[in-house]
Design goal:
118 residues, mainly beta, four-stranded antiparallel β-sheet
């Protein structure tokens, strides 16, 4: 069964940190997996792209604060988010992506809410 399940979201104060998890089924984990986010009233935004071969790419404006990693033994892709800002508030989703790190194959998780507020 192809499945992606995100977890780890929540309410955090500005400057705080969160680690999101994207648990993939065995089949899905063989794909490149991307993190995306969508804030109210805004278009969906790419956050990171974790290649099955190990490379990771980030949106330029998030480099240095966000770090994605894969744990092959746990079929999980993580997104470590540090120095969070109010503008990071969004629903964060993981999805399978193609070679260009754009959504492909139609596999998405349900999303996890991240709210950054004092």
């Amino acid at each position: 069964q192809v499945q992606l399940v995100e977890s780890g979201g929540g309410l955090v104060k500005p400057g705080g940190s969160l680690r999101l998890s994207c648990l993939a089924s065995r089949l899905t984990f063989g794909y490149d997996i991307g993190w995306f986010r969508q804030a109210p009233g805004k278009e969906r935004e790419a956050v990171s792209c974790s290649k099955a071969g190990g490379s990771t790419f980030y949106a330029d404006h998030l480099k240095g604060r966000f770090t994605a990693s894969r744990d092959n033994g746990k079929n999980t892709v993580y997104l470590q988010m540090n120095s969070l800002k109010a503008e990071d508030t969004a629903i964060y989703l993981c999805a399978t992506v193609g070679a260009d790190c754009q959504p492909q194959y139609g596999y998405w998780g349900q999303g996890t809410q991240v709210t950054v507020s004092s």
